Amino acid sequence: MNLVDVHCHLNHELFKADLPEVLKKAYAAGLRRILVSGVNPPNNREVLELARKHQPLIKASLGIYPIDALGIQPDAVGLPHHQGKIDLEEEFCFFEKNKTEITAIGEVGMDFHWADKEKTEVEQEHNFRKIIRFTIKLNKPIVIHSRKAENECITVLEQEIKNKEIPVIQHCFSGKKSLIHKAAELGHYFSIPPNIIKSSNFQTLVKIVPLTQLLTETDSPWLSPFSDRNEPAYVLETIKKIAELKQLSIEETAKQIWHNYERIFNA
Predict the structure, then answer these.
(1) Which CATH class is domain 3-265?
(2) Pick from 191, 133, 141: which is nearest to 166 by CA?
(3) How far apart are CA 206 and CA 192, in angstroms?
(4) How far is 168 from 214, CA to CA, in rounded Å?
(5) Do the strands 102-109 and 142-145 form a parallel or antiparallel pair, or are they unpaired?
(6) How many Cβ atoms sit within 10 Å of the Cβ of residue 35?
(7) Of 80, 84, 232, 251, which cross-links 42 as Cys (Cβ 3.0–4.6 Å)?
(8) What are the angstrom distances between the C-alpha of 40 and each of 49, 86, 212, 217?
(9) Which sign, positive or negative, has the C-alpha torsion 118, 122, 123, 124?
(10) Nearby residues of 159 by Cβ (< 8 Å), 6 or more positions away
(11) Contact by Cβ (8 Å): 142, 104
């Protein structure tokens, strides 16, 4: 089986001591592609170096996390920080310069968990629209962070992306059923983390969304299905649960999700 983790953070400090072993374990579990996601300028540069060092297993998904873009203290300790607001145009230039080595743009989006909606919605939406338009120009898939902003993100994506110009991947989507249906009808894809084994929300999502629109992720080091640090090898737990919910074999499920990955990311 060929497995894929389309969203994780292997440059987190929790992987500093044993990343080679983590990658060996992932490969032994069947992982053939791991997309490491960036969230801000220094983070993006680390991710790109990881991808260069560990080709072809690791691919780079460079992003601008909505909280980092605002200059708000990020929630994710253990990743490189960026001081102050992010200069979007400057970061776009970096993406453009390295576009042949970038598999996707993300994670990007909107967030009303860590940022006050009333105070930041206008600025967040403005940033998000600029990033979407740039991503369309770059012709890359876009990976969406939408914590407590699922409806707002879908509305903006529907307005900005016409005729499925680029693939949209909803990372760890936690919206209600009506929004799952709406995003699926728009042709969005959903990446499912291994804590699906205990999350009724992700189980419901998998039951609703066709297998042809599902992907696997870990969001490592977070969202472990167990009590330890999450890591790419645990993608297998997601595959097992999706197979169970779809009443398919593990092999059939893995094959379709790998096919989805190849079709979406062309990598």
Answers:
(1) alpha beta
(2) 141
(3) 8
(4) 11
(5) parallel
(6) 29
(7) 80
(8) 14, 7, 31, 20
(9) positive
(10) none
(11) yes
User: pTM to 2 decimals?
Assistant: 0.97
The structure tokens listed for 95 are 């993406």
What are the tokens at 224?
């472990």
Q: How far is CA 190 from CA 6, 147, 196, in A?
A: 10, 14, 13
- Rounded to the nearest 10°, the torsion over CA 120, 126, 129, 131 is -90
Q: Which ranges of the chain would DSSP assign to H, the alpha helix?
A: 19-29, 41-53, 66-70, 88-97, 117-138, 150-160, 177-185, 200-208, 235-246, 250-265
pLDDT, tens digit only, all 267 positions of the chain = 999 999 999 999 999 999 999 999 999 999 999 999 999 999 999 999 999 999 999 999 999 999 999 998 765 579 988 999 999 999 999 999 999 999 999 999 999 999 999 999 999 999 999 999 999 999 999 999 999 999 999 999 999 999 899 999 999 999 999 999 999 999 999 999 999 999 999 999 999 999 999 999 999 999 999 989 999 999 999 999 999 999 999 999 999 999 999 999 987
Q: How many helices (H) and strands (E) does the chain have?
A: 10, 8
